[in-house]
Every structure is written in C-alpha cells, then in structure tokens.
Specification:
This protein is of the alpha/beta class. The protein is built from ten helices and ten strands. The strands form two sheets. A six-stranded mixed β-sheet has the order 1-2-3-5-7-10, with helices on both faces. Helix 8 runs antiparallel to helix 9. The chain is globular, with a radius of gyration of 19 Å.
Length: 260
C-alpha cells in the first residue's frame, strides 16, 4: 500500500514503520494518524511481520508533537472528539496490538510523539533524545493517553512534574525513571531495536500475544489482571507452540515455534 506520511518496510520478520514528515519534525496530523492505523493493522495481520519497530525519519525528531494548526480553532466538542478518535484509531490500538511494538525514539518525542512512544510495548532511545509533554504551555492537556501512561511508567510524582512544568528530559534521565529501556547512539539505535526484535522472535509469538493481554489488563479499570493471566496461561496449553516448546525443552533442543 502507498502512504504519503509514513514509510513501511518488512525484512526478516521485522516490520519497520517510519513517520516521514521531516519538514514538520514528523508531527502527527489526522492523515498521519490514519495511515499509522492502517499500517499497524496490516502488519499485525501479516504472516511475515513478527515484531514492529516504530521510528521517525531524520536525526532531529521521532515525533515532535501534534500538528497544532489542525486544532487551534476547535470547540470543546471538537476537542473531545479529536482525543477520542485519536486514542481509538492509534494509541489504544498500538498498546493492545498482539504484535510486539518497539519505539525507537530518535531526537524529540514531545506531546503526541511521546504519547505514541508510550503506547508502544517498550522504548529505546538515542542519546540525543528529548522527551516531554508540553501541552499545558499551550493551554491544553495531553489528550492521547499521556496523563494515564506516563504515571504508569515513571510514577505519579515524576509525571506530575513533567506535565505541570511542560519540561523536557533527556535520554539518560528517561532511562533512570523507567520511561525508556535502553539508550544508545543515534547510529546504533535501529540496530539495537532490531537486535531486541530478533530476541523476541526466538520465542513463541502466540505466548507473547497472551502476555501482552495479561500485562495490559493490570492497567484496565474493572479488569482483574490475575484472572486474565490465568485465562491466557490456560489458553497456551491448547497451542502448537506449547507442544513444541515443552517437547524441545525435554529433548534438549532449540524450539522451532510454528506460531500457532
């Protein structure tokens, strides 16, 4: 499929989505959000892509925020619809995707950009990365899940500080507070993401889908995460991957998971 604002590439089981609006520092607009939605759904349905790496084009920005020009004159109702549609189309979709998503944060990840990175299953960052939620400096709050996911990752106090000061933190501080898992150079960022993706692909992707559901359940209101874990654990016993994994272990060989 042809896209105007993103690039999509599949190779050796890894799907790479690159947000490609370098002149706008890869800012998210409605068209880009829709294209990302389509690309994530297509890769998740693909029999080839086992892991997805999400990044931004160029060296300056992962995503430097939302395209403010699109909503500067919105009404209260328009603003609510903007947040609801964006969360449904993209941010919640990414968080709950069965295919693992790694965000490779290169440069600025601000506002909607940081919210998108936080929706991924985990994050790696280049050492020049800068992250923050500056929305209150524009008279608005994060609307794509930032007020919910940031405290889950860094704790309430740190999240409150970042939101209320509208400040940015660097890659090292982001790692210290749990916002990113690894920090490396810009040149080694994608190789690191691909190395982690390769490690993931050695395991049962069916089991990983169940693990994603179980972990996410802990953060859903009215959902008992332990019960979800029990259900997903039990479901594993009916899969070909479970049979192969346990047989390989007993036979002291490397498992060749069929992904079923």
């Amino acid at each position: 499929m042809s896209y105007e604002n993103i690039l999509v590439h599949e190779d050796n089981g890894i799907g790479t989505i690159t947000i490609n609006r370098p002149k706008k520092l890869n800012a998210l607009n409605r068209d880009t959000i829709q294209e990302l939605h389509t690309a994530f759904e297509a890769l998740d349905a693909s029999t080839e892509a086992k892991v997805i790496v999400l990044t931004g084009s160029g060296e300056k920005a992962f995503v430097a925020g939302a395209d403010i020009s699109e909503f500067a004159h919105f009404s209260v109702e328009d603003g609510g619809r903007l947040a609801a549609k964006g969360q449904e189309l993209l941010f919640n979709l990414v968080q709950n995707l069965g295919t693992p998503v790694i965000a490779a944060v290169n440069g600025f990840a601000l506002g909607g950009g940081l919210e998108l990175a936080m929706a991924a299953h985990f994050r790696v960052a280049s050492d020049n990365a800068k992250m923050g939620l500056p929305e209150v400096s524009l008279g608005v709050i994060p609307g794509y899940g930032g007020t919910q996911r940031l405290p889950q990752l860094v704790g309430k106090g740190k999240a409150m500080e970042m939101v209320m000061t509208a400040g940015m933190i660097g890659a090292d501080e982001a790692k210290q507070c749990g916002l990113v898992n690894h920090v490396t150079t810009q040149e080694e960022l994608l190789p690191l993401a691909y190395k982690l993706a390769s490690k993931i692909m050695r395991n049962s992707l069916v089991a990983i889908r169940g693990a994603i559901k179980a972990v996410n359940a802990n953060y859903e209101d009215g959902v008992n995460g332990y019960e979800t874990e029990i259900t997903e654990f039990g479901n594993c016993f009916g899969t070909e991957d479970f049979k192969e994994g346990t047989t390989a272990f007993l036979e002291k060989r490397k498992a060749a998971f069929p992904g079923k």
